[in-house]
Amino acid sequence: MSYSEIVSIVEEIVRLPSYMVIGISSGKRLIYTSTQEGSMDLYSLDLETGERIRITSGERILSAAADEDSRLFVYTRDVTAGKELATVVFANPETGEKIEVEGFKPTRILGLALDGERAAFSGVVEGGTGVWIARPGEKAEMIQKLSGASFVLSIKGDLVVGAGWLAGDARSSEIFILDIPSGKLNIYTPKKGSSNTGPVISRSGKLLFASNYTGPYRLYTLDPKGMVLEPLRTSYTDHLRHRITEYIYYDWLDDEKTWFLGKRDGRVRLYVDGREIPLPPGYSGSATYYRAGKRFILARSSLTSPPRIISVGLEGGYSDIASSRLSRNVARRLGRVYFTRIRSFDGLEIPTFVIESRVAPRPGPTVIYVHGGPWWEVPDMWSGTIASLVASGYHVVAPNFRGSTGYGEEFRRLDIGDPGGGDLMDVVYAARWARETGLASKVAIFGYSYGGFMGVWASVKEPDVWDAAVAGASVPDWEEMYELGDAVFKQFALLLFDGKRDLWRERSAINYAERLKAPLCLIHPQNDTRTPLRPVLRYAQRLLELGKKFELHVIPDMGHYVIDVKSAMEILLPGIMFLKKNLG
What we know:
Elements: H1 3-15, E1 19-25, E2 29-34, E3 41-46, E4 52-54, E5 61-65, E6 73-78, E7 86-91, E8 98-100, E9 109-115, E10 118-125, E11 128-134, E12 141-147, E13 150-156, E14 159-164, E15 174-179, E16 185-188, E17 196-201, E18 207-211, E19 218-223, E20 228-231, H2 238-241, E21 246-252, E22 258-264, E23 267-272, E24 275-277, E25 287-290, E26 295-300, E27 308-313, E28 318-322, H3 328-331, E29 334-343, E30 349-357, E31 364-370, H4 384-391, E32 395-399, H5 409-412, H6 422-436, E33 440-448, H7 450-461, E34 468-472, H8 478-484, H9 487-496, H10 502-506, E35 520-525, H11 534-546, E36 550-555, H12 565-582
Parallel strand pairs: 31-32, 31-33, 33-34, 34-35, 35-36
Antiparallel strand pairs: 1-2, 2-3, 3-4, 5-6, 6-7, 7-8, 9-10, 10-11, 11-12, 13-14, 14-15, 15-16, 17-18, 18-19, 19-20, 21-22, 22-23, 23-24, 25-26, 26-27, 27-28, 29-30, 30-32
């Protein structure tokens, strides 16, 4: 395959629009984000007439929230060329008119919610996070400061609620309930050490949230007046029969009934009052309920099916609202997708997706794709990176190593205090599996963010495993990353390593640069504040002094978050071209 063919294929894939459903505004307008015009922008769609308005144009959107009873919606935008320091903006979904919140210094915003024309959000302050209330045309007011990382998730009536690592332990998360008039703050957990996430307030003031305090994740309701906790009662039990391991999105249908998205083995199902509503196979990470039309609106995709927005009735049956389609030339390159479990060094089974390329031989060049996070996963969801690799002629093995989400809280906790230890060996054993099963001839590691850390770390810790390594937005030096981070990312490093600062030096590739054998490609955004550039430049200098074979690509005017087609091309193309030169 020629270089020009690779460029053409990757460009087609990254130009496919992505979609995320935000919610319903003004009773009938769908608010969603999409890259359909090149950058991640906000759109407003009248679900009755089909009228569509582009609200933003290249504003570096980071988050948004909508409320069906409000005539406005709210969003945050990065005003620092990728450094993720954001302002808050109200927007009219019918006219596109915008009102920026006043009196607020741009900061990293971690959570955003809307009730009528009041927005609540949390943002980084010295020593933790603050909670603000904002209204259009008025100055934002910080009403509470919390230690640690906290995420505002819902506001209604007198309450603002959210969750975070409020006990200072990555193994648990707690809910905060803030009474606005009195300023009374309640940090709540049903059991010390349990994980509690995503509280949502009903119209009557009851909370719905997910917790693992009795073992597996379940949904619970909490009356904040009497602090009465109850398991969610549903008329049907399809979600229990399907043994759902994670509830990724949920909300109230009315004051008693709920709907939710449940996940197992990387795939997501929709449930209403516990009854499954059939969907096309794949994954949905965002959804909303269109009350007037009695329909659900979801973003939907799979590893081989590009993103789309679908409308689903209460009794099933779906239609496309927005979609994208691969050309026949690219679609025919994407081969078989299957889910398997790979036994690691200690017998732990690692859930893994395998995506075969129809244009690669078997055995053929294979990429072990390492996701970011580390508290994230590779689900059966469209990934422009994975699709580009497969269409360019590489089989892809994507292990959900220990520490990944979606496979229970016990599995997620396994890398706390040991990043670059057991999780690295899971990745190494995935590479061995690829060779032993006859899938792989040569093997490369490829990752971004935490996956980038794994790329630089694996290439020096297990140098004989790899034929090449690509590391995007990597962390070659945890000590320096901590020094350069803000309050939240300092806490992240402490939580991830469980306070074991001595491991920062031990798990930093910069201290083992002489062990590198495979060619290495470093790709890094210049304005990244999550994984700063400076340690990568020092690592590159060290590799240069040692005479190691490597490439370094610094992407100007870009932060950690890939928000447009141009950025995606600048991140992906160097890595794939590098693989062609070094893997075949």
